[in-house]
Amino acid sequence: MSPDLLLTGGTGTLGRLIFPRLQDAGRKVRVLSRSRHESGDGVEYVTGDLATGDGLERAVDGISTVVHCAGTAKGDEDKTRNLVQAASAAGVQHLVYISVVGVERIPVVSRTDRAMFGYFASKLAAEKVIAGSGLPWTTLRATQFHEAMLAMIQQMARLPVVPAPSGFQFQPVDGAEVADRLVELSLGEPAGLVPDLAGPRVYKMAEMVRTYLRASHRRRLVLPVKAPGKAARAYRSGANLAPDRAVGRRTWEKFLDERLD
């Protein structure tokens, strides 16, 4: 059987969790990648570039569902527009998109806002492209992944003094739980904007850093730093959180115990 589902971002953190779950659900998966990969183990890789549109016509040929997980901090809406145009021409019946909690509440207006929080503006613009595409669609907004928070904090912890934006809070969620939900949505009918998916606990940034330092047996001074700009102010007000959607189960502490063991 030929693949009937296309996965973008299939070689990224979330994509690598999604495609084996789709296979377990009996879907034949095609993965779009900018780099060449050998097809195998039931996965067909196609080479294409969302930024230029090269290879997208072939990627969506014969596809009924697209799960769009590829994303960057800049130009996400243009890449999504290229994908939407190809998907529309091919008669795709369902486009599933992963976005981020708070995109509509984080104002990205100044140069400072864009430098620190441009990802939110890019995601919101991509959401609007999908919603206005005419394609049947589903969008899931999730809070920050444990994996992404760990990568950021590990970078920060290389410094002798770790800067922790004061007032910032996070509600990290496990990437595997997001993958489970996206697979469930991809197997269902288009549902528009579905309820957010957030982790089980809200943490102050400094708390997350200190928990990581203890778990990794490091000693660092944690220095509170106030971030400037309207977007940072919104962050301090909790615009990136979804406490009423704390449906994730894996805590930051549990994630670190397992990852750093």
Offer a few descriptive terms.
261 residues, Rossmann fold, seven-stranded parallel sheet, 9 helices, 39% helix, 18% strand
How would you explain this protein's 3D organization?
This protein has a single domain, classed as Rossmann fold (3-Layer(aba) Sandwich), CATH 3.40.50. Helix content is 39%, strand content 18%. The protein has 9 helices and 11 strands. The protein has helices at residues 13-24, 56-60, 76-90, 111-131, 146-156, 175-187, 205-215, 230-236, 252-259, and strands at 5-8, 29-33, 43-47, 65-68, 94-100, 137-142, 161-165, 169-170, 192-193, 203-204, 221-225. The strands form 3 sheets. Strands 3-2-1-4-5-6-9 form a 7-stranded parallel sheet, sandwiched between helices. Strands 7-11 form a two-stranded parallel ribbon. Strand 1, helix 1 (13-24) and strand 2 form a beta-alpha-beta unit. The longest helix has 21 residues, at 111-131.
